[in-house]
Specification:
Layout (H helix, E strand, L loop, with lengths): L1 E2 L5 E2 L22 E5 L3 H7 L7 E22 L4 E12 L22 E2 L6 E3 L9 H18 L2 E6 L4 E2 L6 H15 L1 H29 L1 H7 L9 H7 L7 H44 L2 E5 L6 E20 L2 E8 L2
């Protein structure tokens, strides 16, 4: 183990390394991209603290892997939807005739800055005859990658089936609810207008009926009923002044009947106002309920929706540490990426 130019510890191979694994890369078809994953010094420092004092030396052991990337296009005729998703996987290269375990990926993202074109230091490569690096094998694995995406990648869409609206992947629930409320008011606008027209028609009829009754009984009689004469004199005083004359009993009965009718009309108008408020509230609650309704929909993809961005052989670095324990030496392999 040696100090780097900036004080960082580096883990170099022995001067005379030996390994059961070859020190050279396998022969590859020129069509196959071949890259190396950089080692992480920070990860190594964190991994060796419990056996640092036992370290004798170290060497790099590269294992084959697959770097696979694809862009998926989600779209649906049911929803106004167009969404792209990039999928990246770094997995172990499978020995033949196995297929890759795409669910057991080391990384589900990729940064080109983490790769290099050459191995770092003196290295060994952990592969043997169980690994097939032919062009046909890579085509088989790439097809398996596509089939894995077709089977597992779906887009879960939150939607309102009544309004035929979907929540965009990055949209907040509050914004989606606002859009649904606006659409619900637009679609239920005719019903709203019908309700308002009906309430207004009932109100107009009662007002016309009230005006007609008032005209028939006359303003003076209404004021008398209220306890005042037309000139402001109390009704009791006026009646004493009329005590010498005979009142028209039938006319008095008609007046009282009209006054009772007016009172009934006023009560109907008050009841109509109460009903109007309740109907508008009920209608608005119905609109809100429709706007808040949610369902989950799964959008699946077809082969034409998958674009393979990259499919490469990537060598994944592990560091093999030789440890001295009493009179015996043992090896300890640490993932270094």
């Amino acid at each position: 183990m040696a100090e780097g130019s900036r004080g960082r510890k580096r883990y170099s191979a022995r001067k005379t390394p030996s390994s059961v694994h070859p020190a050279a890369l396998p022969k590859l078809d020129p069509s196959i991209e071949n890259i190396f994953r950089q080692r992480s010094d920070l990860l190594l420092e964190q991994s060796i603290h419990h056996f640092r004092e036992k370290m004798v030396t170290s060497q790099i052991l590269y294992r084959p892997g697959i770097l696979a990337g694809a862009r998926i296009n989600f779209h649906g005729s049911r929803w106004d939807l167009h969404h792209e998703r990039d999928i990246w996987k770094v997995v172990s290269f499978p020995p033949k005739p196995q297929l890759a375990a795409w669910e057991d990926c080391f990384h589900d993202s990729w940064d080109n800055r983490d790769s290099c074109s050459m191995p770092q230091g003196v290295s060994f490569f952990a592969y043997d005859s169980t690994f097939d690096f032919s062009r046909e094998r890579f085509q088989e694995l790439q097809e398996d990658f596509i089939q894995h995406l077709l089977s597992h990648e779906v887009l879960e869409v939150e939607c309102n089936p009544y309004l035929k609206m979907d929540k965009k992947p990055e949209e907040t629930e509050g914004n989606f609810l606002s859009r649904c409320l606006e659409r619900a008011h637009q679609e239920l606008g005719p019903e709203t207008q019908t309700l308002e027209d009906t309430l207004q028609r009932f109100q107009n009829r009662l007002r016309e009926k009230l005006d007609r009754e008032i005209r028939e009984i006359g303003k003076e009689q209404l004021e008398l009923q209220a306890g005042l004469t037309a000139d402001g004199m109390p009704i009791q005083t006026q009646r004493r002044q009329r005590s010498g004359s005979e009142m028209d009993i039938q006319n008095e009965m008609d007046v009282q009947e009209s006054i009772a009718t007016i009172e009934d009309i006023k009560k109907e108008m008050e009841n109509l106002e109460t009903v109007s408020v309740e109907k508008r509230k009920e209608f608005e609650e119905n609109v809100t309920q429709i706007a808040r309704f949610r369902e989950k929909d799964l959008i699946r993809i077809g082969r034409a929706d998958v674009e393979v961005l990259r499919f490469a052989l990537i060598w994944l670095p592990f560091t093999e540490f030789i440890l001295q324990e009493d009179d015996a030496r043992t090896s300890h392999l640490v993932r270094s990426f």
